[in-house]
Design brief:
The complex is a heterodimer.
Chain A lengths: L5 H4 L5 E6 L6 H15 L5 E4 L18 E3 L4 E5 L10 E11 L2 E8 L3 E3 L10 H10 L5 E7 L12 E7 L6 H15 L14 E4 L5 E3 L13 E5 L5 H9 L7 E7 L7 H9 L3 E6 L2 E8 L10 H12 L3 E3 L13
Parallel strand pairs in A: 1-8, 1-9, 2-4, 2-8, 9-15, 12-13, 13-14, 15-16
Antiparallel strand pairs in A: 3-7, 4-6, 5-6, 10-11, 10-12
Chain B lengths: L5 H7 L1 H6 L6 H10 L7 H20 L1 H12 L5 H7 L6 H22 L16 H7 L17 H19 L4 H30 L3 H26 L6 E2 L4 E6 L2 H9 L7 E5 L2 E6 L6 H16 L8 E4 L4 E5 L12 H14 L6 E6 L7 H15 L4 E6 L3 H4 L4 E8 L14 H11 E8 L9 H7 L4 H8 L1
Parallel strand pairs in B: 1-5, 4-8, 4-9, 6-7, 7-8
Antiparallel strand pairs in B: 2-3, 2-5, 9-10
Helix pairs in contact in B: 3-11, 4-5, 4-11, 5-7, 6-11, 7-8, 9-10
The chains are: A alpha/beta, B alpha/beta.
Chain lengths: 337, 480
Amino acid sequence: MKNRGLSGLIGDAKTVVMLGMCKNAGKTTALCRLIRELSEEGGAPAAMTSIGRDGESRDLVTGTDKPPIYMYEGMLAATARELLPLADVSREILSGTGLYTSLGEVMIFRARSDGFVQLAGPAIVSHLEPLKAMLKGFGAGRLLIDGALSRRSPAAAAKDGAVILSTGASLDRSLERVLAETAFAAKILCLPQEEAPGEETGHFTLFGEDGAGSAAEDLNALPRDTGEETLLVSGALTESQAASLLKSPVRKEGLTVLARDAGCLMLQRGTFEALTRRGVSFAVRNASRLAAVTVNPLSAGGWRFPEDEFRERMQEAVGVPVLNVMREEESHDPADV
Amino acid sequence: MIRLTFEQKEELGFNTVRSWLQPASPYGIARLKEEGFYGPEQQAELERELDNVAVLLAALSENEAAVLSLQQALSGLKEVRGTLAVCRERSLTEVELYELTAFCLRLRDCIKKAEALPGYEWLHGAGFIAPDPAIRILHPEDSSRISFYIEDARTPTLQAARSEKRALELRLRTEEANRPQLIAARQEAVLKEEEALNEIYRDISEALRPHLADLEHDAEAAGRLDAAIAKALLARRFSCSRPLVGGENLTLEDALHPLVAEALKARGRAFVPISAELSRGVTVITGANMGGKSIALKTVVLNTLLALSGCYVFCRRAAVPLFANLELINRDFSNAERGLSSFGGEILRFNEAVSRLGEGLSFIAMDEFARGTNTEEGEAIARAAVSFLSKQNAVTLLTTHYDNTAALAVRHYQVKGLKKLEELPEGTVSGTGTDRLRLIEQAMDYGLIEVEPGTKCPRDAIAISRLLGLPEEILKEAAK
């Protein structure tokens, strides 16, 4: 049997979040590919939305909006009211959602033909849960979420689902750096899942070996002589918080930083690596599953990486299947033209 | 017209009680906002509103599920009045047409449920005009499924554009060759489809125009019904009663202030209901400090306001005139911001109240009027004001310490006040501040009794100071 491409890699994940490392990483192309594969598979119709609106939907040459996503008859989409007239798919409006974006209420429609759509779903990740339930009510099968650019926070939506990460030459002129940054993002997206050792009592809660937790608002004030401890982070771990953890006198060997999900870990690669070298390990309470990485060897700036070398080395770096979605012979999408 | 400030309504507890009304739809919310207070010319309207609450209360006791199911259906109605208004000016967009379709279909459901209510035929102003003509225009398939889509068969132009477009889309699914040409050809078909749809949207909008007024009427009827259901639910929750409205006497029997009652209940104590009859002229309430004079006044004003806003009241029985004005003259902390002393603020308010006396029967409630100045002059001013008001077209309620003022009243109530000290428990002068407050609550009888106008106030201030723990040395000196 022919390799089913992306749809074969996502398994039975009910939710798939598409993340991009940078502009022109081929995230939209990957999403379109997945939509087409799912339409050929049949079954319950896929539904699609986005977190916020992707800047890539603006045509940089003409400055006009171009509809970047091609959907198929029967599929469902949730997008902002003001973007509906920009879609050219024949559509049946099914419902409002009571969820609002700067472009108006998010509306749900069913495609009654094939055609283009612009997605601008809820800007807030937590709004995806009620939206999922509504789409399910209209018979949706899988939900495909176009995540925002250069942010991991949409990964939170992939709870019990899969993530597809798109990267490409546009990220950096140096192939080595593209590999390293993508591998870091992949590592965050593949962190192991752990249970919280207890109730969180502050933004940071430190749990000792005895299981007792104490709130620690100031990372610098952590006790110096910790043993095997867990630092539970209730919201985001920002780069500056991670940097102050790195500089704090706390003993780092054996310390586990436990975040809610991969989207909450907003620290940079250098800080992450420095902490890891000192014996800190990272885990999440809701693990995501990185199903695949897609690569685009062609950059917007004009340089390109050797196709096969890029794909193969990426494969080694990330440890999950890597696809080059830009290969012409694999593409049927009107969106690619 | 009754003009109370937001702060005054807060102080009276009116805002809180009105916030307990929970309409389900934007129309019910708007209805409550617009309703305001009923004036002397609106007796029939107010009676109709109270009739509606009565019908719904009866419906609640006969078939609660039917009322709640109607309320549930009303909660599905989204605000479309803006859309109805723009439809007179221009063609509606697909989303606006969807919203109107959803509104009409849900409205049809509401009407069905309203008509199933016990006593529906007795409701005023809830007569709906069936939205079926609009539904036939928006939704010719006339299914009950809420969605908006123009089927191909609507016009031949649309049919042609859609089949051309569909054929190209099918080719795009499979053909490898000539893709740019196929895409361009599809783009042409897309434009034809859009043109055809816009023409249909224009025709639909035009066809809807004769029905817009009916839909607006229904939106208002839904709001009326929704607001009345909210009032009935509140009345049931607190066993409120229907006020009689009209006439010139304000009569309350066993009136409660629900917020104070709630606070007392949390402390294990019960609110002592207040009964009073107020007619043209001045009614005075006197009584001990901490005896609840102000609460009695607030209870009277709050229940009056509720009756005049078409709600049931927290009384066993009530008769409320349709006052042209209702003025509350009390200690107002916002005066300080305006650079006025509390005394100055009272005088200005009083002037305003006087200037409106010509508008019709007024209700003037004054809490400890002219107390914020020296006793001698304060009493003289209060007395003169009472003398003036007793000759005006006004029902006045005044709480005061000034005995001589009460002598001019048509009616005089006294807070029953402290029980005899020998009835009190042992150890009255021990304990901390809160214990002492509790002791006063136990020792105080908050009920009102009617006395001969001008009857001397009970002299409880020294006894109360003793209960509050004022040093004995000072008490002795004071008693001289």
